[in-house]
Amino acid sequence: MHQLRGRVGRSHHQAYAYLLTPHPKAMTKDAIKRLDAIASLEDLGAGFTLATHDLEIRGAGELLGDEQSGQIQSVGFSLYMEMLEQAVEALKEGREPSLDDLLREQTEVELRIPALLPDDYIPDINTRLSMYKRIASVSNEDELNELKVELIDRFGLLPDAAKHLLEVAKMKLRGGSLKVKKVEAHEKGGYIEFYPDADINPAFLVKLLQAQPTKFAMEGPTKFKFMESLTDRRKRLNYLNSMLDEFEANRLPA
């Protein structure tokens, strides 16, 4: 339909194309999405953008899903592409890609504190969503620090919730390098859960448990629990960072 519209009217000739569609209630959701995409794109080069929209709607062919859809709809186009790229890299390195490896790109962190970019800090929703995506996509602490400087330069000093968001992003990066699956903390303590192949020195864990049995405990072979009063949010962040420092300093030699 988009190509047909482009064929009507050439050179100095003015022409119009009338494209008739069924009533919206008689169309599928995908059809409505395609029509909306066609109606919104009128600029030069719109064909490429339209093709991208169509790719996201129907899937990207058999390589990316079951009969051009399937699993790509479950995780979204961008995440599916990232997972595919990681799987290809693993195969190039001679490793067998596993789902755990593909999903452990970032550690899950739940600290029970507000961690977001407030509406009154970045009023425009598109800009706000873009910044969220960039924060989630950083690959190291240097990139995160550069993004922090950019936020301050563009929007002013960071509110507490935005500071917490960057702290959580930093913790995810650190957790990823330590093969931490999840970090959770609340007012009375929390836990750090590792992947089974984490290289934390078991002797260090045993030493902690023996030294302070009322403060630390293991729940299963991979979940390290801690009991501590962490009502203050800053103390909660500092406590977890210092704990990750300890684990970093007590890794098994490569």
Highest-level CATH class of the largest domain: Alpha Beta
Strand arrangement, major sheet: 1-2-3-5-4
Distance between the termini: 58 Å
- The total domain count is 3
Say what oligomer this is: single chain
Considering DSSP H and I runs of 4 or more, what fraction of the residues is helical?
40-55%
The beta-strand count equals: 5
For the sheet with most strands, the description reads: 5 strands, mixed
CATH architecture tag of the largest domain = Alpha-Beta Complex
Number of helices, counting only DSSP H or I runs of 4 residues or more: 11
Give a brief outline of the structure.
With 254 residues, the protein is α+β, with helices and mostly antiparallel strands. It contains 11 helices and 5 strands. The chain has a 5-stranded mixed β-sheet, with helices on one face.
Description of the molecule:
With 254 residues, the chain is α+β, with helices and mostly antiparallel strands. It folds into 3 domains: 2-58, no CATH class; 72-103; 108-249, Aspartate Aminotransferase, domain 1 (Alpha-Beta Complex), CATH 3.90.1150.50. Helix content is 51%, strand content 10%. The chain has helices at residues 2-7, 29-40, 46-58, 72-75, 77-92, 99-103, 125-137, 141-155, 160-177, 202-211, 233-249, and strands at 108-110, 180-186, 189-194, 216-219, 223-227. Helix 2 (29-40) packs antiparallel against helix 3 (46-58).
